[in-house]
Amino acid sequence: MERIDTQQDAQGSNENKEMPDWMHDERVLKEHLQYAFVKGCKVLGQGRVADYIPELARADTYAFGLAAQKTDGTVVSCGEVDTRFSIQSVSKVISLALALKLLGTEEVFSHVLMEPSGDSFSSIIKLDTKSDLPYNPMINAGAIQVVSLLADQVGFQDALQFARYMCMDPDVDLNEPVYRSEAQTGDRNRAIAYLLKSKGVLVADPEETLDLYFRLCALNVTAKSLATLGLVLANDGENPITSQHVIAPRHARAINSLMFTCGMYDGSGEFGVKVGIPAKSGVGGGIACSVKGRMGIGVYGPALNEKGNSVGGLAALEYLSDALHLHVFDYHPYIVEK
Ligand code: GLN
User: Fold this and answer.
1) How many helices (H) and strands (E) in the chain?
2) Which of 80, 90, 202, 321 sits at a 20 to 30 Å CA gap from 32?
3) Atom 10 in ligand 1: which residue has the minimum CA distance?
4) Is residue 40 part of a domain?
């Protein structure tokens, strides 16, 4: 490794030394987003749309879109960024944010742990054999537990309003067919809720909890709404466009940490190494990313890998992280790799 003098840039100026090019030149970001889009498109055929919730099988394997929103509010996008699709597990971020807002950190984390599970998102194994409390709020067991805290406090309409507020998208709404489809077939989640009840840890009635959980998973969003969601988290819980304090900075910090360690399920470790951005995925093909202090990125790409993460999204984000130095543990951009 060789360190190049960073005191002055090529033009001999110290200006914007701390600011990467793409932060003040929209065209640079657009160009990289386009490259990332192509990288993502190339691998879409390697993934499969989720079909364990029958209604999700209707998605188009080749649909793909990327949206980035910077702290100055600028949106740069490529592909299908206005297409509505169901948020699925990305809603776990919203339910956790709302629970933290209503109940505070201590209370919420007395009902759910903060540890990566290393198991698939709908696994029951650790819950049955290792711990009465679910491992973290980013997997189904943990999210169902968090939603049981909510079900005791708010109705679906309140949670929907909060989702709209967090995504700055008044058109977020319930996708009825997706909701009904999961409510009819979601036996694994039903098993999780009843297992939590049998252990005496579920806070609300299991059917009430599941109904709210299925509804929140069936909210229709776009890649743009997920970019704004990521942006709010990247900006310490404050929406930089409206200056509204959506959630407390301490809560945003907790959510970003859990997204980093658990947000991509049993693919979180690899994603942490290769991309290194707090992110949350869903089987509808969405990913919301929070790039600390800089921007939110929203992905729509329903072709998934075996872990339930968008294949196009993974390829695109890996490219973007490298090209724009977004990794939270990134080395100095002026260090030349040998
Ligand atoms: N609603 C889905 C489920 O509970 C969400 C899973 C996901 O997006 N990974 O199975």
Assistant:
1) 14, 12
2) 90
3) 122
4) yes
For 63-102, the pLDDT digits (tens) are 999 999 999 999 999 999 999 999 999 999 999 999 999 9
Where in the sequence is the domain holding 34, given as residue range(s)? 26-336
Between the alpha carbon of residue 213 and those of residues 33, 128, 141, 206, the distances in Å are 33, 21, 11, 10
In a domain, 174, yes or no: yes
Answering whether pTM is above 0.85, one says yes
9 lies in a domain?
Answer: no
Atom 6 in ligand 1: which residue has the minimum CA distance?
89
Q: Is 310 in the pocket of ligand 1 (CB under 6 A)?
A: no
**Active-site residue list:** 89, 92, 213, 265, 283
Banded model confidence at residue 19, pLDDT cuts 50, 70, 90 = confident
Closest protein CA for atom 4 of ligand 1: 140
In which region does residue 63 sit, left (phi positive, over 0), alpha (psi from -120 to 50) or beta (all else)? beta
